[in-house]
């Protein structure tokens, strides 16, 4: 995995740049010492590490604006960072770039029940929003497995989902407004407490833009009323294919669960050993199906799901009888990623999305790929919306195993595209899927996306090296033409 070549002039001016930034963010807000920079050298994709030029931790919007303006005027790259839980390398630092950490933006600014929304700073954790409003019967719907740690600003950058995104949508479906600082320091507001705005969907453009367009400094999120009744079913199957068939049939019957998750045998055993959630250990696949709404409706839907599951060959079925038991069902799923970390020295967590009816085919093909590469894979994913999270187990201490795991992951993602799916559902492209983008998009598609990037960041200073497999200069992009497979402007660095 290659990144843009560092700018030697910037590297040689590290101390001067740090001094200039201290004038903007005084005190302990600028980190230069090598050991103190080390915690920021990677995000959740720990296979790749780079020490940033300087780390800056601003506390106010004015400081963010001044830092970006300074970097813009001096041609210095900037990588925005939230909690660093990204699994695609989206906040991987650059050797010649300022890492802009938003961790100190951690206040809930306003809770407005009349308009069913809350204004929060980007460093507020996902779960903290729900904790702040649950006593009044409200909650924030998107709930990534890392919700106890991941920040809402990072959720916006990656368009994160979670176990309840099937019914209630991803981050983009639960946002109302943003405050964003542009690379030249200009502060803009998009949306607000109202519903959809007219004209261009700038809110949609910023959501999932992975820090390539601007730095989010405030988020207005939609709050939902907690449902009257919530129950979950724990359903075991003798094969992953039968579990996948059940998923397709439940959705095909017009039932939209609050959440619908699937785990295969390796993930089930890892989670049960870690959390002791009461999962059956004699099944090959496990479905967690959560239904919410009025009590009578939930009772009816439980009966319908039970009937479908039995027709698909379910060998065990348990219905939660209390809130504590329901949360227990989810405890194993929420802890699946760290649980798998206990059974393998390293793993890559992939993220691709497929049409639901292709689930049995894709699971079968993944088994073949596992045998081909000689690497184990544990499957944990949002089955209801087809968002797969295969965990490829490997040992980085064995020469060549990381490369083999990367190739295995690449084949899984290409398979997702092949069956009509996409490269990512919620983790973003980052560096992990960057070089696979041509498997899904043509050169024309990518050039058009790059033109949008250029409209916001014409000098390419915001998070370069991510998402796009080929670097273009914005001034030349309009003249880009591929003739007989030969790229013009061969002096442009490509990686």
TrEMBL record:
What Pfam families does its record include? FAD-oxidase_C, FAD_binding_4
- Report if keyword Flavoprotein is assigned: yes
Which ranges carry the FAD-binding PCMH-type domain? 48-226
Cofactor(s) the protein requires to work = FAD
SUPFAM superfamilies cross-referenced by the UniProt entry: FAD-binding/transporter-associated domain-like, FAD-linked oxidases, C-terminal domain
Keywords linked to the UniProt accession: FAD, Flavoprotein, Oxidoreductase
- Flavoprotein: is it a keyword of this entry? yes
List, in alphabetical order, the Gene Ontology terms for molecular function in this entry.
FAD binding; oxidoreductase activity
Identify this protein by name.
Answer: FAD-binding protein
Question: What species does this protein belong to?
Answer: Hwanghaeella grinnelliae
